[in-house]
Amino acid sequence: MSTLTTALAMARKDLRLYFRDRTGMALGFLLPIVLVVIFGFVMKVVNGGDSGPSRATLWVVDQDGSEASRAFVAALRSAETLRVRPAADEPAVDEARMRRDLADGELHHALLLPAGFGATVAKRELPELRMLRDPDRTLEQQLIAIGMMQAAIAALGPDFAEAFTTRMLERAGLPKEWRERTTALARGFAGGVRRLFEEKEAQASAKAPAAGSAEGVSVAAEPASPSLDPADFLGQLVPVVNEEFRPPERPRQLTFMLSHSVSGIGVMMLMFGLMACATQLIREREEGVLPRLLGAPSERAALLWGKYLFALLIGALQLALLFAVGGFVFEVDFLRDPVAFLVASFVILLAITSFGMLIAAWARTSKQAEGLSTLLILVMSAVGGAWFPLQAFDPPAAVQVAMRCTLTDWAIRTYQALFWHGHGLRDGDVQTNLAVLLGFTVAATVAARALFERRYVRAA
Q1: Comparing C-alpha atoms, which of 274, 245, 309, 266 is closest to residue 414?
Q2: Residue ranges per structural domain of the chain
Q3: Which run of H or of E encompasses 18?
Q4: Angstrom distance (rounded) from CA 269 to CA 322
Q5: DSSP class of residue 159?
Q6: I want to staple 27 with a disulfide (CB 3.0 to 4.6 A). Which of 144, 201, 371, 416 is the partner?
Q7: Which residues lie closer than 8 Å to 447 by C-beta, 6 or more apart?
Q8: CA distance linking residue 130 with residue 97, whole number of Å
Q9: Neighbour-count burial for 281-302, b at 16+ CB within 10 Å, e otherwise
Q10: pTM
C-alpha cells in the first residue's frame, strides 16, 4: 500500500470520528462564526454604530434657569458624544448631590451652569462653566470635550465668533487687559476669514465648468487638516474651571484602563484555567478511570465535590499569582481592604468554578466541553467588557441587558468597585454584585449535581 493510499485511509478514519460527535462538530464550526459576529458587534458599540459616536454620561446642574442656560442644556442633549443626565423627564439635581456622588465614585463628570449664565450671554460674553470631574477618566473626558464644543457652537452661535477668537488669543498669551484690542483684532480677523472663504467659493464655482469639460485631468486632493486635541481646544473655546475629585486612597499610578484590564483579563483567564480543571472529569471518563472511581466504596457525589474543590484551590492559586504579579509590576495595592478583596475573590471563584463544573457535567466528550466553554467564555468576555470597558460608554438597552447576563460583567464591576472606587463590603453595589454571583453559584451547582447524577452515576 502506497503512502498516499495509507494517508487517505487515515484521513477517512479521522473524518468519521470527527463527524461522529455532531455536537462537538457543530460547536467547532459555530465558534468562529459567533466570535466574528460578537467582535464586530462590540466594535460597533464602541464606535457608536449607526447612531453615531460612542457617548459618555455627563450630569448637568443648571443653577441659572434662564432661557440661555436651558438652550445650552438642550444643545448638550443634541451633541453626538453626550448622554446628558438627568434626562428631560427626570427631576433636576443639585450641586451637593453631584459632589457626593463624585466622592462616592457614582459618576465621573458633572457640569455646573452658574447663576448669571444668561446675563453673561446677553452681554455677548463667554460664561465661565465649572466642571466637577474624576481626572483619571480620560476616555470619557475626550468624548465630553467634543460634545461640549459642539454644544457651545450650536447654542451660542455665530454671534460669539469674536468672543471665541478673543478667548483663543488670550489663551495664547495676550493679557486680558488688552481685551478691547484683541476684540477689535478678532473682529477684523473674522471678517478677513469670511472674505477668504467667499473668494474660495467663487474660484471653485468658476473652475467647475472647465473641470467638467476636461478629460483625463487629475485633481490633487486637499491636504488633510492637522490633528486637534478636542479637550485642549475646548479649554480655548469656552472658559471651563475644572474641580477634580480623586479618591485619596486610589494609587496615583492606577489608571482606569489599567484597573479594568487587570480585572477583566484576570477574570477571563481565570475562567479558562478553571475550565481546564473542571473538564478533567470528562477526561477520566474517556480514559476509563471514572468507572473504577465510581465503583469505590464511597459516596459517588464525593467525586463531583472532589473535582469542585480541586478546581477551587487551583483557581485560588491562579488568582493569588495574578494579583501578586499585578501588584509587583504596576505597584498597585490590591490589598487596601484585604477582607473585602478576599471575600469578593472567594465569591467570584465559587461562581466561575460552578460554571466550569456545569459545563463538565453537561458535555459528553472533551471536544464538546472545550468548544462550548471556549465559545461561552469569549462571548461573555467580549459582551461583559473584559476586553474593553463597555461599561464606560452608553450602550443600547439590549446590550446592557446582555452585559448583565454575563459572569464577567458582575465580576468586573465587583473588582472595579474595590480597586477603582475604593468601596468596601458595606457598599450597596458591591453587596448586590456578590449576591448575584452567589445566586448563580447555587443555581449552577444544583444543575451540575443533577447532570452528574444523570450522565455519570446512572450511566456507570
Answers
A1: 266
A2: 55-206+228-244, 256-457
A3: helix 3-20
A4: 10
A5: G
A6: 371
A7: 358, 361
A8: 15
A9: bbebbeeeebeebbeeeeeeee
A10: 0.63
Q: How far is CA 315 from the centre of its chain?
A: 25
Pairing mode, if any, of strands 129-133 and 109-113?
antiparallel
As given in the structure block, the three cell numbers for residue 8 are 487517505
| pLDDT value, residue 213 | 41
Q: To which residue does cell 487638516 refer?
A: 225
276 φ/ψ angles, rounded to the nearest 5 degrees: -65, -35
At 57 the three-state DSSP class reads strand
DSSP 397-435: HHHHHHHHTSHHHHHHHHHHHHHTS---TTSHHHHHHHH
- Please state, in angstroms and rounded to a whole number, the distance separating the CA atoms of residues 20 and 24: 9
Distance CA 135, CA 351 (A): 34
Distance CA 397, CA 78 (A): 19
CATH architecture of 55-206+228-244: 3-Layer(aba) Sandwich (3.40)
DSSP 456: I
Q: What pLDDT does 122 receive?
A: 82
Maximum C-alpha span of the chain: 99
The C-alpha atoms of residue 48 and residue 50 are separated, in whole angstroms, by 7
- For residue 33, give the C-alpha cell: 462564526
Question: How many whole angstroms separate alpha carbon 178 and alpha carbon 321?
Answer: 62
What DSSP string describes 302-368?
HHHHHHHHHHHHHHHHHHHHHHHHHHHHH---TTSSHHHHHHHHHHHHHHHHHHHHHHHHH-SSHHH
3-state secondary structure labels for all residues of 382-400: HHCCCCCCHHHCCCCHHHH
What per-residue confidence (pLDDT) applies to 435?
Answer: 96
**For residues 333 and 251, is the Cβ–Cβ distance under 8 A?**
yes
Successive 10-residue mean pLDDT values, the chain, 460 residues: 70 69 63 64 57 75 90 89 87 89 83 89 79 83 83 69 57 58 60 62 66 38 40 56 76 68 82 75 71 64 80 86 77 78 93 88 80 84 79 70 88 86 86 95 92 72
Residue 316: burial class (beta carbons within 10 Å; 0-12, 13-18, 19+): middle
Dist. CA 14–CA 18, nearest whole Å: 6
Residues with Cβ within 8 Å of residue 406, at least 6 apart in sequence: 379, 380, 383, 384
